[in-house]
Amino acid sequence: MFDLTDRIALVTGGNGGIGLGMARGLGQAGATVIVVGRNAEKSAAALRELQSLGVRAESLACDVTDEAAVQDLFAQVRARHGRLDILVNNAGSTVRKLPQDFTLAEWHQVMDVNLTSMFLCCRAAHPLMLEAGAGKIVNIASILSIFGAPYAPAYCASKGGIVQFTKSIALAWAKDNIQANAVLPGWIDTDLTVGARAQVAGLNERVLARTPAARWGRPEDLAGIAVFLASRASDFVTGTAIPVDGGYSVA
């Protein structure tokens, strides 16, 4: 029931960090993985890594905050594969400032990359999944959709929005046999959190002290939840928000 053979999966922000960890899991479960990102060099490196593992993978460039570019992206998927079974919305960004120091441009930047891109991709994926008679959508939120952070107001707001939007499409598209769920990663060791540890004094120590697993997560820790939510094993699971955080949110 976890076999993804013959499934077509698209992962935004799939060329690094959590996205690449999920892409590995999906590909090793049998899916053909389409890695989407703006950095061509980073995407090429991700593609080489995936293919070295025997994963059927390809990459497409797209600015997922651009409506026309997103429409073209999914048109390319239709032309190449004729279907889309799995969509992972992982593209993300942040600006670390106190709320009073945010500019409107910075606010829009974070909201567009994290939340608006997800809406655009979900909307564009729906017709393809409708034609296929089924679909799986995995939206990457954060445990900061549960907790606040004084230095990440736009990030927290966008991730909370992802959870609520996921519930909405889960309800709207249940009749179409499309399941939509959110994943709430905890503190995962990625390029994004390397920056957080550099900018936020004491963050590393606080995370380790509170996390029952007593370590930072790794991108590969997200592979299993991606496979579960993309497979037949989760056919009766929709509208949920699942923490993957080593126990941080219950400590």
List the SSEs and their pairings:
Layout lengths: L7 E5 L4 H12 L3 E6 L2 H13 L4 E5 L5 H15 L4 E4 L14 H29 L2 E6 L12 H21 L4 E8 L5 H9 L3 H8 L12 H8 L10 E4 L7
Parallel strand pairs: 1-2, 1-4, 2-3, 4-5, 5-6, 6-7
Helix pairs in contact: 1-8, 3-4, 4-5
List keywords for this structure.
Rossmann fold, 8 helices, 251 residues, globular, single chain, 7 strands, 15% strand, alpha/beta, 46% helix, 7-stranded parallel beta sheet
Describe the structure.
The chain has about 250 residues and is of the alpha/beta class. About 45% of the residues lie in helices and about 15% in strands. The chain has helices at about 15-30, 40-50, 65-80, 105-130, 155-175, 190-200, 205-210, 225-230; strands at about 10, 30-35, 55-60, 85-90, 135-140, 180-185, 240-245. It is globular, with a radius of gyration of 17 Å. The protein starts with 7 loop residues before the first strand and ends in a 7-residue tail after the last strand. The mean pLDDT is about 95.
What's the gist of this structure?
With 251 residues, the chain is α/β, with parallel strands linked by helices. It has eight helices and seven strands; from the N terminus they run βαβαβαβαβαβαααβ.
